[in-house]
Design goal:
CATH class: Alpha Beta
CATH superfamily: Zn-dependent exopeptidases
Oligomer: single chain
Strand order of the largest sheet: 1-3-2-6-11-9-10
Order of helices and strands: EEHEEEHEEEEHEHEHH
Radius of gyration: 18 Å
Distance between the termini: 55 Å
Shape: globular
CATH architecture: 3-Layer(aba) Sandwich
Largest sheet: 7 strands, mixed
Structural class: alpha/beta
Length: 270
């Protein structure tokens, strides 16, 4: 079953029995690092059916960031950090795209046509934003403001994963930092990652943050003057639970060193 193209009843996009869009772990965490995961899940609202796609397509990267959910959950626990994640598929609405961007509700992703995204009315697109995008980003904004009122320092880290190859070209990086305007966090994080002798680390690779194609870091991090960075981990390294735990443990150690560095340089209080 698919959503009525006219999108008359926005409130019913998500049935009462469906999971809410926002997942949170460790809400009382005292770490300065606030973790987000825009592409954590691949759930599709029942009213949208399967978006006209076979099941195999909904398991691919076009639907979510493979492996990042396990990393995010474990890292949140290891760091005692608050995690805010989004449960619905990026094919329904991409929570790391400006809502007015063409890629916000993609009609094609990589080489795959998304039949359920063809011919959407403005009302139907707004229904997706109101049900999924807005609650997620409203919650991130609310948490950041609450932390500010309580004098809890906030360093925003957006967690993602990327495919080992794209358009037939192999990607050599194991992990990459993504940033735009912040000159404090990314170079220090990059230095610590590159001190790991077994890692190939991308500097704004395989992607770079921009205000035209990204939302979470520009809006919640840069616009508020927060230290912020995205992290991209290659999916073949974290597809299995063992890899997810291994990477969470490694990142927890690195972020511990990063926090100490930021405090020593008085970029964080204490």
């Amino acid at each position: 079953m698919t959503l009525d193209r006219d999108g008359d009843d926005k409130a019913l996009l998500l049935d009462k029995e469906e999971v809410p869009p926002v997942l949170e772990n460790n809400t009382a965490g005292r770490s300065p690092f606030l973790l987000t995961s825009d592409h954590y899940g691949r759930t599709i609202p029942r009213r949208l059916g399967d978006l006209g796609l076979p099941a195999g397509e909904l398991e691919r990267h076009i639907a979510w960031d493979i492996g990042i959910a396990g990393v995010a959950d474990a890292l949140s626990k290891d760091l005692d950090a608050h995690l805010i994640a989004q449960r619905y598929s990026r094919l329904v609405i991409d929570c790391n795209r400006p809502p007015d961007a063409a890629s916000s509700i993609p009609r094609i992703s990589e080489a795959t046509l998304i039949p359920g995204n063809e011919g959407l009315t403005r009302e139907a697109a707004d229904a997706r934003r109101l049900a999924i995008f807005d609650p997620y980003h409203d919650r991130i904004a609310e948490v950041i403001e609450q932390r500010r009122r309580e004098n809890i320092p906030t360093v925003l880290v957006a967690l993602h994963s990327f495919t080992p190859a794209y358009a037939g070209i192999t990607r050599p990086w194991h992990i990459g930092t993504l940033y735009h305007r912040d000159t404090r966090l990314p170079p220090r994080l990059l230095r610590l990652l590159r001190s790991e002798s077994d890692l190939v680390v991308g500097d704004n690779e395989p992607y770079a943050v921009s205000e035209e194609t990204d939302y979470t870091i520009p809006v919640h991090g840069e616009a508020r003057g927060l230290m912020s960075s995205g992290l991209e981990i290659r999916q073949d390294l974290i597809a299995a639970p063992a890899g997810q735990i291994e990477w969470a443990d490694r990142l927890a150690r690195i972020f511990g060193e990063l926090e100490a560095m930021l405090r020593a340089e008085r970029l964080l209080p204490g």
